[in-house]
Amino acid sequence: MDQFLVEKQVPYYEQFYQRIKQMIFDGKYQPGERINETQLAKQFSVSKSPVREAIRILEKEGLLEIKNTKLVVYEPTLKDVKDIYFCRMALESFAVDLTTRIATESQLDELGNLLLNTEKAIKSCKGSSTIIELNEQFHTLILQFTDNSRIQKQVNDLKGLIHYYRVLNFKGKNRAEDILGQHHDILYYIKNRDALSASNEMIKHLEKDIEHLVHVLTNDS
Cβ contacts of residue 77 below 8 Å, gap of 6+? Predict the structure, then answer.
């Protein structure tokens, strides 16, 4: 029986959503594996209603999908990698351009401190989940500093699948160090208020992610 403590202050469906999502990211539910609403409700000793709502949100995010009338865990494809990352290139290259132009000095310091914390986490051999979270924060702050809620929403709509691919993207030797180095390159141009170069560096960074993910998916298949 899976240990699961219900927190009364958080809606049940939100707790199940977070739990199921983490199990997908952790590989406890494998790509293509069938998900059964009744079994989940029994596993967590709850009614079907909150589980059904959690499943609805995960379907909306793309982490669960219907295949041949069956609900299954999202199964990544090379086309999806390219489609999602091309969307990111368009949105995040614009975001970093805008942030480079309007970010305050304190915001630039926040980005710099984040990379220092990432470097410390890598050197102290923190778990990959911590480093992935710091990596995610770098991109999130750049979006936040645009002060443009519309572009933030566009990226947020892909958040579930972006995180899914971030987890895959950290597979392989020295990936954390490679990604950190690329983030330093992006920040260098942001700090120098070189919007065009910062935008180009973000595109280059995401292109390298695609290249690595294609390698991971090809070798795992």
Answer: 217
Sequence-distant (≥ 6) Cβ neighbours of residue 9 within 8 angstroms: none
pLDDT at 126: 76
- For residue 32, what is the DSSP state? T
Query: pLDDT of 15-24, one tens digit each?
Result: 889 999 999 9
Angle at CA 75, nearest 5°, toward 22 and 64? 55
CA distance 34 to 31: 9
C-alpha pair distances (Å), 128 with each of 51, 166, 205? 28, 11, 19
- Range 63-69 average pLDDT: 92
How far is the CA of 113 from the CAs of 9, 23, 175, in angstroms? 33, 31, 20
Q: What is the pLDDT of residues 153-182, one digit of tens each?
A: 999 999 999 999 999 999 988 999 999 999
